Amino acid sequence: MSILKIGGATVNQTPLDWEGNLKNITNAIEEAKSQGIELLCFPELAITGYGSEDLFLSKWYPEKSLEQLKRLLPYTKDITICIGLPVRIGEILYNCTAVLEAEKVLGVMAKQFLAIDGVHYEFRWFSSWTAGKITTLDFFGESIPFGDIVFDKKGITYGFEICEDAWRGDLRPGYRLKDRQVNLIFNPSASHFAMGKSAHREELVTESSIALNATYFYVNLLGNEAGRMIFDGEILAAKDGKLLLKNPLLSFRPYQVRGFEFSKDAKSLEAIKSVHNKNEEFTAAVCLALFDYMRKSRSTGFVLSLSGGADSSSIATLVAEMVNRGFSELGLDAFLERARLKHEIPSEAPLKGVVKKILTTAYQGSENSSEDTLASARSLAESLGATFYDWKISEEVSSYTQKIEKAIGRQLTWDHDDIALQNIQARVRAPVIWMLANLNNALLLATSNRSEGDVGYATMDGDTSGSISPIAAVDKEFILQWLQWAEKSLGYTGLQKVNSLQPTAELRPREQHQTDEQDLMPYPVIVEIERLAIRDRRKPADIYLILKQELDISPVQLKKYIHKFFRLWSRNQWKRERLAPSFHLDDFNVDPKTWCRFPILSGGFTEELYELDQIDE
Ligand SMILES: Nc1ncnc2c1ncn2[C@@H]1O[C@H](COP(=O)(O)OP(=O)(O)OC[C@H]2O[C@@H]([n+]3cccc(C(=O)O)c3)[C@H](O)[C@@H]2O)[C@@H](O)[C@H]1O
Ligand SMILES: Nc1ncnc2c1ncn2[C@@H]1O[C@H](COP(=O)(O)OP(=O)(O)OP(=O)(O)O)[C@@H](O)[C@H]1O
Ligand SMILES: NC(=O)CC[C@H](N)C(=O)O
């Protein structure tokens, strides 16, 4: 009975960090050797990083990747490695996996189905390879087999599906690998994180092992590679429909190696059970994304305008939780070293000491702010251990207001100038909080959520100011329930006050009792309309007919809400184009750079809303 120790290595790569990327790969190879692994698979495009964008269009970038591949040969004396990189044949670029063994490249195979949905735009850079086709590649003077090839080690035959290849149902290359009777199929992936996706992948991998009659081995990239997409570093293996291997996801470490003993004939293997929790997945993903963004941008921490409301408080909590998780996985010294931080940390309370250095918050009260939100912000900051300042913005607001009143020769009033008087408050908070970010060489965190993004409920260059927007990909309902969960399940008791408040901008005089939901519509309604309009791409009339059955709202009111959503959605595309970069976290988002493109100028659904109005109520 032939036994082969096979393994997967996930790596946290960064485009253009050639040395860092190579080091992760060689360290992982050494680790694999020490575990006795003989055949090791890395993720898709592990040499360059998946998110290299238009660097892939240049001639030199794929050439440099081949040079990096050559530098790996000396590490393959007594191990076979499979590793992803872009390879040009003539003028055409392919997304490939190279197999290296005994200091030689055995062959290179190319992806057949490119990913083009949602956050993926592979056709911009790559061409797809034709099934069954084989050619040769000139690798520094040596002719290497290139294309749809399979390999063999110790009598065990193996082939590849590269990420999207596996997601194409009956067309997938795996069925032809099955016809060729391979024993083992690797799937090197760059599969973006989305809540709930890991469960979906487990299904894909276990079902593939039955449908393709082979052991199926899956390896994903790790970390916030290049800003927006997060990879969870998942390594999975399945045989006969049983999940045999799964690693801890979203690790703060630069790489992780997992292996198991493969045998063609092994029977009665024990299946692994895994649990999935959306809030936990969200927390782990944002924490790692924040950590990677901070260290890869060479920033020393974060600055946050903390209102004591839901959005800013959730972000403050996530930064503290990032420190907490990084700290428990890596330990203090390794955490600081990996984050490139040189902070002096008090030894008696190191965790809070790190939070104090990394997270600086400020409450910036206006005449319309309440004692409730100040108390909420203060108690949360104190409980997290964050640096907290509290100042007033009233002088700056009056100074701007008086200046403009003098210029235009009249007094501004709430009856006449509501939006301008609201926005000036949000805007004067921006320069001073930016100043703090500059002083600290820190990232300014913007607090937009996806529901606000849908309808443009934010002041441009006011509360939209910031360099990253960590929660812009999730809706407000999700944030509100996550805060409850974080208080109870993660033990953030400092969220008690936050969780007792109703969402409000506090930009109008207090006697007007402004709330977000009065200005807009109930958040659960925004979430439902968004789901149908944006995720499912349905038109207003269809949405009305569906929601009329699902929601307990009068038909007249529902029509008004749908009108408002589409009117605000269309008018505010320019705002979404200007939000700070955000992480992709849910199965869809409204970020125009990744998931959702929409014209900045448009007819604003006039005819489609007219069609809605014609439906009987
Ligand atoms: N297509 C387009 N391309 C470029 N610019 C376009 C545009 N359409 C309008 N504009 C411009 O947009 C500007 C208006 O945008 P902007 O100044 O941002 O302001 P605007 O969107 O009119 O108002 C901000 C809204 O956000 C709410 N808010 C603000 C701050 C915080 C919170 C909170 O929840 O805490 C809520 C506030 O209550 C108000 O309803 C105008 O000057 C207009 O000319
Ligand atoms: N008094 C304040 N002090 C500091 N920052 C503030 C203040 N008021 C508003 N901001 C900033 O403006 C952002 C936008 O306000 P918004 O009301 O949308 O969010 P929130 O207050 O965090 O949550 P909620 O909407 O649930 O009240 C806040 O997240 C915060 O960054
Ligand atoms: N890189 C890819 O091919 C990714 C596409 C695939 N559907 C995924 O999200 O996992």
From TrEMBL:
<feature type="active site" description="Proton acceptor; for glutaminase activity">
    <location>
        <position position="44"/>
    </location>
</feature>
<dbReference type="GO" id="GO:0009435">
    <property type="term" value="P:NAD+ biosynthetic process"/>
</dbReference>
<feature type="binding site">
    <location>
        <position position="575"/>
    </location>
    <ligand>
        <name>deamido-NAD(+)</name>
    </ligand>
</feature>
<feature type="binding site">
    <location>
        <position position="197"/>
    </location>
    <ligand>
        <name>L-glutamine</name>
    </ligand>
</feature>
<feature type="active site" description="Nucleophile; for glutaminase activity">
    <location>
        <position position="163"/>
    </location>
</feature>
<dbReference type="GO" id="GO:0003952">
    <property type="term" value="F:NAD+ synthase (glutamine-hydrolyzing) activity"/>
</dbReference>
<keyword id="KW-0520">NAD</keyword>
<comment type="pathway">
    <text>Cofactor biosynthesis; NAD(+) biosynthesis; NAD(+) from deamido-NAD(+) (L-Gln route): step 1/1.</text>
</comment>
<dbReference type="Pfam" id="PF00795">
    <property type="entry name" value="CN_hydrolase"/>
</dbReference>
<dbReference type="InterPro" id="IPR022310">
    <property type="entry name" value="NAD/GMP_synthase"/>
</dbReference>
<comment type="similarity">
    <text>Belongs to the NAD synthetase family.</text>
</comment>
<dbReference type="GO" id="GO:0005737">
    <property type="term" value="C:cytoplasm"/>
</dbReference>
<feature type="binding site">
    <location>
        <position position="423"/>
    </location>
    <ligand>
        <name>deamido-NAD(+)</name>
    </ligand>
</feature>
<feature type="binding site">
    <location>
        <position position="447"/>
    </location>
    <ligand>
        <name>ATP</name>
    </ligand>
</feature>
<dbReference type="GO" id="GO:0004359">
    <property type="term" value="F:glutaminase activity"/>
</dbReference>
<dbReference type="InterPro" id="IPR014445">
    <property type="entry name" value="Gln-dep_NAD_synthase"/>
</dbReference>
<comment type="function">
    <text>Catalyzes the ATP-dependent amidation of deamido-NAD to form NAD. Uses L-glutamine as a nitrogen source.</text>
</comment>
<dbReference type="Pfam" id="PF02540">
    <property type="entry name" value="NAD_synthase"/>
</dbReference>
<dbReference type="InterPro" id="IPR003694">
    <property type="entry name" value="NAD_synthase"/>
</dbReference>
<keyword id="KW-0436">Ligase</keyword>
<keyword id="KW-0547">Nucleotide-binding</keyword>
<feature type="domain" description="CN hydrolase">
    <location>
        <begin position="4"/>
        <end position="264"/>
    </location>
</feature>
<dbReference type="InterPro" id="IPR036526">
    <property type="entry name" value="C-N_Hydrolase_sf"/>
</dbReference>
<feature type="binding site">
    <location>
        <position position="191"/>
    </location>
    <ligand>
        <name>L-glutamine</name>
    </ligand>
</feature>
<keyword id="KW-0067">ATP-binding</keyword>
<comment type="similarity">
    <text>In the C-terminal section; belongs to the NAD synthetase family.</text>
</comment>
<dbReference type="GO" id="GO:0008795">
    <property type="term" value="F:NAD+ synthase activity"/>
</dbReference>
<dbReference type="InterPro" id="IPR014729">
    <property type="entry name" value="Rossmann-like_a/b/a_fold"/>
</dbReference>
<feature type="active site" description="For glutaminase activity">
    <location>
        <position position="111"/>
    </location>
</feature>
<dbReference type="InterPro" id="IPR003010">
    <property type="entry name" value="C-N_Hydrolase"/>
</dbReference>
<feature type="binding site">
    <location>
        <position position="452"/>
    </location>
    <ligand>
        <name>deamido-NAD(+)</name>
    </ligand>
</feature>
<dbReference type="GO" id="GO:0005524">
    <property type="term" value="F:ATP binding"/>
</dbReference>
<protein>
    <recommendedName>
        <fullName>Glutamine-dependent NAD(+) synthetase</fullName>
        <ecNumber>6.3.5.1</ecNumber>
    </recommendedName>
</protein>
